[in-house]
Amino acid sequence: MSAWSKAGLFAGGVLFGTAGVKILGSKDAKKAYTHTTAAVLRAKESVMTTATTIRENADDILADAKAINEKRAAEACAEEIPDASDAFGEAPEAAAE
Description:
The protein is mainly α. Helices cover 88% and strands 0% of the residues. It is built from four helices and no strands. The chain is rod-shaped.
């Protein structure tokens, strides 16, 4: 590559960069950035609302699951075989005397 073509590429890059900065700083670009930022904020709000709903539902599910386990534990405790001394009316040590 010759020196002139390198200089031409450099000048083209500077020109393109300067034009790019002007385009990015224009009123239309600012308007586009504003609308994009507003859309992102709306999306964030939607995601946060959904996350809150999921968290509330998870808390309800956890509470229901604990209640089910407590009910099953109470039913299992009621099904246990009663102490043999209750069946005979006295403790086995007292009967041996």
